[in-house]
């Protein structure tokens, strides 16, 4: 067991480096970048940098570049589009500020060395450490991801078991129809429908439209905070969960059907055990192996699947919206930090998932399993 865990941990290192290297290479060939963005904003081709990123290092340099451009009208050739008329010394200062004055291989090596020590630096355009910025947005994504996964499993597993026991019945047919229809509905369209119906749109005004809590959150009692939090989360979670039941429900049903048809189930019935004893004492443990394996992936995926649009629609400032804005704004410090943290988290959770197999079924031997 320990040998297997050690091998998996060692395998995480080249896997993580490979993920970061591929992403880094793609970024090198992608058009635009933080330098080009600042230049575009200074030359009037984009939004004002100091309005969007006040207080950040990019804004400070943008101010200097604006002043320098006002004092210089000489056409100067530059490798950056739109940089004509800007002092080359300030362009070099801008490159140094963002770390682009070094060769790509050196920049990648330094980035990985810093990330190995969990030093993610500061955001290019916001006056804040990347870790603090991620932690600031984390509660929203954790709330959405955790509750959506738990609610999905809490409904899908009992429903899947009921469908397996009643396989082919009218209940099985109409619940399958409902699940397929729900899976086909895009979460963001359903979110808009919920807003129109229940959040002050054309019809009712029962639920809030934005945020995780009310403005008077600090003044509420403990029970009041719980109610207020559930009140704000009701519509976003409903929108996310509408299509989250299909896979888990059908996987649960098929797993139980496969186990119910095995010989040991017939033997247990011949011994006089009731259907509930057979189902939950024998079938349940074996059928749940696939679901346990899929839980970590579903939990991690819940942070990203549809979260961006839901966060935007309901004005929830979470990691999905942060990642999207960072890519648009070429804030590579935040982009790569997000990628590194969640890639590492995904690898660790995958290992936990494998170890969970042994907890459910001690017959699994990791010592003889190939990585």
Automatic annotation (TrEMBL):
**InterPro entries, per the entry:** MetI-like (IPR000515), MetI-like_sf (IPR035906)
The subcellular localization recorded is: Cell membrane
Q: Which residues cross the membrane?
A: 9-30, 140-161, 173-199, 229-252, 289-314, 334-360
Q: Which GO terms describe its cellular component?
A: plasma membrane
A Pfam family that this protein carries is BPD_transp_1
Which GO biological-process labels does this protein carry?
microcin transport; transmembrane transport
Q: What is its main location?
A: membrane
Recorded superkingdom: Bacteria
What sequence ranges are listed for the domain ABC transmembrane type-1? 138-353
Tell me the keywords, alphabetical order: Cell membrane, Membrane, Transmembrane, Transmembrane helix, Transport
| Membrane topology recorded in Swiss-Prot or TrEMBL | Multi-pass membrane protein
PANTHER family per record: INNER MEMBRANE ABC TRANSPORTER, INNER MEMBRANE ABC TRANSPORTER PERMEASE PROTEIN YEJB
What family does the entry list?
A: Belongs to the binding-protein-dependent transport system permease family.
Descriptive protein name: Microcin C ABC transporter permease YejB
**What's the source species for this entry?**
Hansschlegelia plantiphila
């Amino acid at each position: 067991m320990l040998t297997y865990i050690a091998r998996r941990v060692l395998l995480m290192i080249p896997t993580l480096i490979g993920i970061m290297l591929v992403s880094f290479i793609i970024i090198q060939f992608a058009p635009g970048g933080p330098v080009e963005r600042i230049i575009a904003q200074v030359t009037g081709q984009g939004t004002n940098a100091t309005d969007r990123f006040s207080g950040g290092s990019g804004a400070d340099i943008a101010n200097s570049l604006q002043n320098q451009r006002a004092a210089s009208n000489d056409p100067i050739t530059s490798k950056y589009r739109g940089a004509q008329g800007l002092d080359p010394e300030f362009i070099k200062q801008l490159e140094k500020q963002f770390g682009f004055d070094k060769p790509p291989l050196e920049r990648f090596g330094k980035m990985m060395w810093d990330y190995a020590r969990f030093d993610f630096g500061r955001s290019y355009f916001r006056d804040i450490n990347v870790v603090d910025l991620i932690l600031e947005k984390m509660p929203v994504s954790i709330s959405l991801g955790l509750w959506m996964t738990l609610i999905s499993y809490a409904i899908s597993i009992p429903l899947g078991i009921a469908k397996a026991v009643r396989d082919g019945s009218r209940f099985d047919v109409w619940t399958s129809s409902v699940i397929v229809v729900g899976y086909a509905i895009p979460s963001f369209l359903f979110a808009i429908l919920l807003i129109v119906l229940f959040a002050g749109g054309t019809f009712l005004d029962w639920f809030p439209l934005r945020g995780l809590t009310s403005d008077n959150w600090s003044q509420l009692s403990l029970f009041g905070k719980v109610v207020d939090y559930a009140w704000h989360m009701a519509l976003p979670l409903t929108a996310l969960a509408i299509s989250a039941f299909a896979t888990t429900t059908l996987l649960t049903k098929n797993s139980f059907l496969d186990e119910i048809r095995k010989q040991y189930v017939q033997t247990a019935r011949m011994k006089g055990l009731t259907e509930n004893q057979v189902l939950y004492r024998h079938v349940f443990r074996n059928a749940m192996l696939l679901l346990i394996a899929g839980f970590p992936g579903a939990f991690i995926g819940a942070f990203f699947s549809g979260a961006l649009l839901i966060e935007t629609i309901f004005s929830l400032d979470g990691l999905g919206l942060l990642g999207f804005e960072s890519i648009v704004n070429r804030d590579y410090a935040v982009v790569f930090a997000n990628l590194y943290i969640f890639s590492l988290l995904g690898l660790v959770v995958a290992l936990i998932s494998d170890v969970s197999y042994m907890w459910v079924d001690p017959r699994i031997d990791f010592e003889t399993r190939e990585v």
